User: What shape does this take?
Amino acid sequence: MGKIKLKIDGREFSAEKDEYVLDIAKREGFEIPTYCHNDQVSREARCRLCVVEARWQEGGHSRIVTSCLYPADEGLMVETNSEQVRLVRRVVLELLLARTPEAKGLAELAAEYGVGKNRFGADTDFGKCILCGLCVRTCREVVGVEALGFRMRGVLKQVGPAFAEPSSVCIGCGACYFVCPTGHIIMTEKGDERKIWGRTFKMEKCSKCGRYFAPKYQLEWINSQTGVAMDRLSLCQDCK
Amino acid sequence: MQAKVNLKLVDEVIKSWGADPAFLIPMMQDIQAQYNYLPRPALNRLQEKLNIPLTRVSEVATFYKTFSLKPKGKYIIQVCTGTACHLRGAPRIADSFMRELGIEVNGTTKNGLFTLSTVNCLGACALAPVVKVNEDVHGQVSSDKVKKIIEAYAARKK
Amino acid sequence: MKINSLADLESVKSKALAASAAMEKTVIVCGGTGCLSYGSAELASALERKIKDRKLNAKVMLKMSGCHGFCERGPIVVIEPDKIYYQRVGRRDKEKAAEELVETTLVQGKVVESFLYSDPVTKERMIDYYKIPFYAKQKRIALRNSGHINPADIDDYIATGGYAALVKALAMKPEAVIEEIKKSNLRGRGGGGYPTGRKWESTRKAEGPVKYIICNGDEGDPGAFMDRSIMEGDPHTVLEGMVIAAYAIAKGKAPAHGFIYVRHEYPLAVKNLTKAIEQAREHGLLGKNILNSGFDFDLRINRGGGAFVCGESSALMRSLEGRVGEPRAKYVHATEKGLWDQPTNLNNVETYACLPEIIVKGADWFASIGTKGSKGTKVFSLVGKVNNTGLVEVPMGIPLREIVFDIGGGIRKGKKFKAVQTGGPSGGVIPDSMIDLPVDFDELTRVGSMMGSGGLIVMDEEDCMVDVAYYFVKFLEEESCGKCVPCREGLRRMRQIFDRITTGNGNPDDMVMLEELCTAMKLGSLCGLGQTAANPVMSTINYFRSEYEAHIKDKKCPAGVCKALIAYMIDPESCTGCQLCVKNCPSGAIKGVKKKPHTIDKEICIKCGVCYDVCKFDSVKRK
Assistant: This one.
């Protein structure tokens, strides 16, 4: 490792060698849109919105790369908003909007890139899911249970529990619901019940204030993973 | 028809690959070779014995085209739709099979005898158009021969 | 028996050569997939019986070989040392054909006229294998043994000089082996054309506790089957190439492990490779202390699961790990972080098959063949609308015209040549005006196609270029892994646009959208599948724009392919009234009496094309 110098949109910055371009650009205040990125999980470059134009020689051959996974090195020159970058983002956004017109925030972002009337039509059968995979990675890498995954391939690809059946390992924590950028995952709560991915979870009451605050399975999972005693897990965030 | 699954057999498959999850795909291939499809109890056993998440089993079983979660017919007809076969009339061959069998691609006849599928090139391009029925390769098939091929297999001993 | 030295190898070789020299004749029956489907296995057992009946066992050796490449002429039988080439032997009656061959050729020493190849144009009958135009212009390096040796017999491979390259390589320093391959300028035969020696060097330099050596036998390009043929017909050459690669790449204490990833659709390749691996282990050519050199290397076979995308190297590695074949960004190369995140060298079957010859004959010899940027030879599968279809290996730089017209014998049924498609779903079409193009990596890329794995699909005036692009888009839509947005969603939208154009519902905006999608997919997709998916579309638009316009503006398919835009009719001039179409029509749409021209009732016709297929006089027309 070591410090290197690179240029972003003509300005010079220093960074660690092999640091990802997206991280450097964000730190230096550049706007790069992302849909499948979250600092807490691994990077897969699915959405292709974070593309930038990279070149190694002034006036030399350039390449469109995803900044979330592109490692920086001495002399790298990056453009975050070139004509080609905008073209890829615009087409990607138009394609996503055609797939999931209702997805949260998508229409606004698409409009910023000049997507007007959607020429590809509007689908109704994908809900709001753009297949960014954040829920899958969060369940696996943060929660550690792998209740969610992909099924099938290509256009038929879907996200959800194994074989699209209610999962026996899901703890009902709702992390996937919170991390989903488009509002596709539905979680409802009523009384002592939480419903998500086709399963109903019993909620535990806070031993102090009496409000339902977490599914029983989730508390047991935390207990089994961290060794924190169950009685210490019986308080909600406010009362702790 | 759903097969009756012998879990001992599944365990043997797992053992033959050293119960290593890296060999999930070959294990599934061995199970599919046995039952013509991947019965759910066998997949659940894989999950349990390999100690891997069921999502991983579900991902792999639904990603690869050779795997089927539904039982297939006794004779699996594969119409090659590689480029050479396409140019020499494979779409007409596939149409003829659909018409003669009364099923769509990936469908199985009611009597459980035939499953119709397409394959993206069998690598027998010089014999185009090609149709494979189980292990038999039929080269230079024309749409009028389709009926004869079906009849030949239907007439075999059950 | 373990082979521990060059002397051991020489002794196996001379024994095998002496055994065949003791025979007057060797009868080689082709056991490739094509010939087997014409019953060559039954033909071989019939020949075996007849040879025994005539008590010729002591004088005649019978063996099954791998593929000769000229598959449509199967079953093929070659008689050595006379170089007699028999084709279509006993397609109908194996017993009779075997009897004739044994009696006429083996007993009387004459040729069986009816088994000889006859030129489709001149009608001249030819005896000599190497004078047949299909073979005369070929130069065989990767296919050097296919069709000549018995793939199930390691001694046969050794007798032709097999494993001599390994002996030579193990006596060299690993760096010197890499230098030799670099000097030969061998470029990867799987499609990308990356210099093999440079790849090896990077993998050797990369630090890791283990190095992986992978052979990509997941030949998915529709219309290409050279890798199948090599794995089936000459499996030891693949193994020998891999051991040489492993020796060159392994460094220090890090062991090397090998994998051959074979397409699920190739059962015979798996069988022959499995046998070859067993034999190589028995002979000490794989496993511990290979050739008593202290070098260890072993490998195993993995069968693919049926996913075209697994031909992409990073997806293939995920599949080997037991996961779904989703590619990864390659900003860090597999040579550093590949399988299980360890340094990994991946080459294609044909690349490995070239290696032993390069080591034995030298880099200079290899580099003397071909063009400036593409050295050596390339195997093509010449298929589609040519007279002679099959596998051909030719020097790089050969004009396309020589492949199509000299080796391929021109277009079938005297139709007009229209285009050639190369590179499979990642490639493009090359129009008739470029027929003199020298074929190599760079020239194909320059005209908007690519080498790919070497599919060469010839099209005639009856092939619709819009349909060809549509075909590849549908293929790729089905095979896209779905990981990244441009490929997954872009291909689906492209397919929908083609749905419209080919059914007469297209509009001029569709062309604009297609071109925009092409650009975005090329720039923005994650892996090679998506990045090159635009090629079939872009190249057909570039060279055949008027055909698109005919579909969109005039609602016509000029080539007569797109079902919704055509009607079947019978040409009253050439129709002989034979009733064949009437008998075969499944919808009863064809009317007519014997010896009078028939007619098709358009109202009843379901456009299934059966009449078109059965007509012997080419009287059924599509317009």
User: Anything to note?
Assistant: The interface with chain C takes residues 44-48, 51, 64-66, 69-71, 84, 87-88, 90-92, 95-96, 98-99, 119-121, 130-131, 150, 152-157 of chain A (CB under 8 Å).
